[in-house]
Amino acid sequence: MTRPVETKGDARVNLLGLPRAKVEAFFSEMGEKPFRAKQVMQWIHQFGISDFDEMSNISKALREKLKTVAIIEAPEVVYQNISKDGTRKWVMKMPGGSSIETVLIPEGNRGTLCVSSQIGCALDCSFCSTGKQGFNRNLSAEEIVGQIWNAIASFDNIDRTKDRPVTNVVFMGMGEPLLNFDNVMDSVNLMMDDFAYSISKRRLTISTAGVVPAIDRMGQYTDASIAVSLHAPNDALRNELVPVNKKYPIDVLLKSVKSYLDQLSDKRKATIEYTLIAGVNDRKQHADELIEILKGLPCKINLIPFNPFPGSGYKKPSNTEVRTFQDWLNKAGCLVTVRTTRGDDIDAACGQLVGRVEDRTRRSERYIKLKQVSG
Ligand code: SAH
Fold it and tell me: Distance, CA 211 to ligand 1 centroid (Å)?
């Protein structure tokens, strides 16, 4: 099944966001053999080529034909910053004036790319600055894949046949990936394709605030890893922090995650993300409740100390408070990691990705008023 492909005021198809089945369909409609799809995909994704003339194993005639029907175009990078710790952040401009942010976190021989899936976010989690900006639109598949394409392109001195600046991808940037289901599934499939980025299923993680019907469908399209932004161990508190919980409460959510894991061919754990907010969800009682509700779910818990932003009204816990919470969970046998803050000198930490959102909701106005009152 081929969906119409979005182009930017241009009738030509942007090949950057098409997963293999769609590139093959594209070539077969042109009367070409399917292996052309693999060749062109390798040029685009593995060699970072956007000019058909550089595709030396494609005949001149086909290259000319391609130029009339297709383009290879990533979002425009308007800003790149490299943090003291090596973290890179990009601001990419989208047609219409909004912009999104993407972050790459290098760690030893790993490079984890944190991609955005929407401009802004509709979910309005109380502690997330992206949510405060309101929502503009979904990103297209090429705008999502364009983030990895641009990230790799920023390393100009690498040997692309050997060096891999991006080994892991997490959908933890701006937006709720499962509310942009089709485009996210297309980009995930492309990122995992051996003729594109070969990111393995264990190293590609879709993070969701808990859109249960989409988690239920996910297994038909991908076997990528899943992370759940839980942040609270009971519905009363989670309703406050993650309002989508009112629609899909914790027990329904965790059951859905468990069935997703059960469908996978290997033994995989879900990641439970828990942003620790001082005095809000970091007490012993919360740890006890968390241990209880996670019984029976293969998972590891990732504690994220809250990253403050102006007007949030929340506080970051101290290192001791974080360690204490971690100890409570560890003692119960939970697997717990604490996310270290990276790139905070360039505002690249969790919940600090804001880009520039032309808000279509009235939410950002409300937030600006609140910020003026609270300082
Ligand atoms: N919508 C998806 C993807 C966003 S991921 C989701 O909710 O999972 C971004 C992660 O960073 C989420 O776990 C989110 O809850 C967390 N986060 C957001 N704001 C934060 C902040 N200010 N401090 C720490 N973590 C934050």
Answer: 14
Tokens encoding 12:
């030509």
Mean pLDDT, range 293-304, rounded to an integer: 97
Q: What is the pLDDT of residues 263-274, one digit of tens each?
A: 999 999 999 999
> How are beta strands 225-229 and 270-276 bridged, if at all?
parallel
Is the pTM here over 0.85, yes or no?
yes
Q: What residue owns the CA closest to ligand 1's atom 9?
A: 172
Q: Where do the DSSP E strands lie in 193-294?
A: 204-208, 225-229, 270-276
The residues pairing with 114 across neighbouring beta strands, listed in sequence order, are 103, 170
Q: Contact, 132 vs 167, CB < 8 A?
A: no
Q: Indicate if 350 belongs to the active site.
A: yes
| CATH code for the structural domain at 13-71 | 1.10.150.530
Q: What is the pLDDT of residues 313-356, one digit of tens each?
A: 999 999 999 999 999 999 999 999 998 776 666 666 655 666 66
Q: Is the CB of 124 under 6 A from ligand 1?
A: no
The reply to whether 101 belongs to the active site is yes
The predicted-structure confidence for 135-165, as pLDDT tens digits, reads as follows: 999 999 999 999 999 999 999 889 998 999 9
Ligand 1 mean position, distance from CA 350 (Å): 6
Give 76-374's CATH code, choosing from 3.20.20.70, 3.40.50.1260, 3.40.50.720, 2.60.40.1940: 3.20.20.70
Choice among 73, 101, 143, 273 that is catalytic: 101
Cα of 322 to ligand 1 centre, how many Å? 17
In the chain the first and final C-alpha atoms are separated, in Å, by 52
Domain spans in the chain, listed from the N-terminal domain onward: 13-71, 76-374
Q: Contact, 53 vs 63, CB < 8 A? A: yes
